[in-house]
């Protein structure tokens, strides 16, 4: 079955099963490019933990998206994880869209969780194009959203906009991404 058709089917099932309980807000998290253990053995870039449906255990987003004041807004909503590679020739890709979220509050860290059986992340090579160095995107409304960001490159604009972003996307933009 085509991956896009399968994702649409899962989205339909999620919306149908949750009815009106889902608010359909979509938040964006920009993940740092992956590194090998040789580059920095203590740098924990394994978060999110896809296999168990968890994000936030490193504490990196505790001052923005996962701040205590934002947690109630995340419940029932979703996160789109984006990630670029090292260097200009690697575009920023949409890696994963979570199913609806729940929140777990730990002693010093807040975590969002989702059902990992509902979906898996895209392979970077096959992932939808969020934006590349020339401004190409599978989501034209995302590019429009970046026009007022004062950075010289499209990847720089995305980094500035989403590195500490803690608000949901506008509904039209979110809809365009969720239909991936």
What does the model show?
This protein is α+β, with helices and mostly antiparallel strands. It has one domain. The chain is built from five helices and seven strands, in the order αββαβββββααα. It has helices spanning 3-18, 71-74, 140-145, 154-162, 171-178, and strands spanning 26-31, 54-55, 78-84, 92-97, 102-105, 110-113, 129-131. The radius of gyration is 16 Å and the shape is globular. It starts with a helix and ends with a helix.
Short description:
This protein is an alpha+beta fold and about 180 residues long.
Any key phrases for this structure?
3-stranded antiparallel β-sheet; 4-stranded mixed β-sheet; alpha+beta; globular
Number of helices in the DSSP assignment: 5
Q: What is the strand arrangement across the widest sheet?
A: 1-3-4-7
Mean pLDDT: 81
What is the total domain count?
1
Taken from the alpha-carbon principal axes, the silhouette is globular
The helix/strand class is alpha+beta
According to DSSP, the number of beta strands is: 7
Beta-strand proportion: 15-25%
Largest sheet: 4 strands, mixed
Instruction: Report the end-to-end length measured between terminal Cα atoms.
Output: 15 Å
In N-to-C order, the SSE pattern is HEEHEEEEEHHH
Uncertain regions spanning at least 5 consecutive residues: 6-23
Give the helix level as a range of percent: 10-25%
């Amino acid at each position: 079955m085509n991956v896009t058709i399968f994702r649409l089917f899962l989205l339909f099932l999620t919306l149908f099963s949750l009815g009106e309980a889902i608010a359909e807000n979509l938040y964006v998290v920009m993940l740092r490019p992956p590194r090998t253990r040789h580059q920095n053995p203590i740098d924990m870039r394994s978060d999110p933990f896809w296999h168990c449906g968890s994000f936030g255990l490193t504490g990196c987003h505790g001052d923005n998206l996962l701040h205590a004041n934002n947690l109630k807004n995340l419940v029932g909503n979703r996160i789109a994880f984006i990630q670029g590679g090292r260097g200009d020739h690697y575009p920023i890709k949409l890696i994963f869209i979570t199913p609806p979220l729940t929140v777990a509050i730990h002693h010093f860290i807040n975590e969002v969780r989702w059902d990992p059986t509902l979906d898996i992340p895209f392979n970077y090579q096959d992932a939808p194009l969020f934006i590349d160095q020339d401004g190409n995107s599978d989501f034209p409304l995302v590019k429009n959203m970046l026009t007022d960001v004062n950075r010289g490159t499209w990847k720089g604009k995305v980094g500035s906009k989403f590195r500490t972003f803690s608000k949901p996307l506008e509904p039209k933009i979110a809809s365009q991404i969720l239909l991936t």
